[in-house]
Amino acid sequence: QVQLVESGGGLVQPGGSLRLSCAASGFTLNYDTVAWFRQAPGKEREGIACDSSKDTFHADSVKDRFTIYRDNGKNTVYLQMNNLKPEDTAIYYCATKRGLCRWRGLHDFDSWGQGTQVTVSS
Questions:
Q1: Which residues pair with 7 in a beta bridge?
Q2: Considering 19, 22, 57, 107, which has the largest number of Cβ atoms within 10 A of its Cβ?
Q3: Burial of 48 by CB count in 10 Å (0-12 exposed, 13-18 middle, 19+ buried)?
Q4: In the 3-class helix/strand/coil scheme, how is 26-50 assigned residue by residue?
Q5: What separation, in Å, do the N-terminal and C-terminal C-alpha atoms of the chain show?
Q6: 117/89 Cα distance (integer angstroms)
């Protein structure tokens, strides 16, 4: 069964750090493009980071604070989040697709995880 599972979310104070994990089962992530999305209440789901075999993308809103990277041996992709801000509060999802880190819409992605909540608050 193909499955993506996110973990690592939680409550953190502004300026703090979290590392999210996206673990795959039933298939290997090694050849897939993996992206992290987030969705805040009342807002659309937005792509914030992506890693393929040929390119990497970080949205301006998270650049220099968040880093996507993968551990192929663990079949897991991570999102290291530093200097977190209250506006980073959202449910974070990982998703996979083929090809480069470019997409027209969420339908370009083949698989999605169930999401993990990140809350940044003092």
A1: 21
A2: 22
A3: buried
A4: CCCCCCCEEEEEEECCCCCCEEEEE
A5: 40
A6: 8
The 8-class DSSP code of residue 99 comes to S
What is the bridge-based pairing of β-strands 111-112 and 116-120? unpaired
Residue 1 reports pLDDT greater than 80:
no
CB-based contact 32:23 (threshold 8 Å): no
Token pair for 13: 């104070």
Q: Are 4 and 95 in contact, with CB atoms under 8 Å apart?
A: yes
Q: Residues 64-117: pLDDT tens digits?
A: 999 999 999 999 999 999 999 999 999 999 999 999 999 999 999 999 999 999
Return the number of other C-beta atoms located less than 10 Å from residue 72's C-beta: 11
Instruction: Answer left, alpha or beta for residue 44, where phi above 0 means left and psi between -120 and 50 means alpha.
Output: beta
- The percent of the chain in helix, strand and coil, each rounded to the nearest 5, is 5, 50, 45
Q: Which of 104, 97, 121 is nearest to 36 (CA)?
A: 97
Beta bridge partners of 46: 38
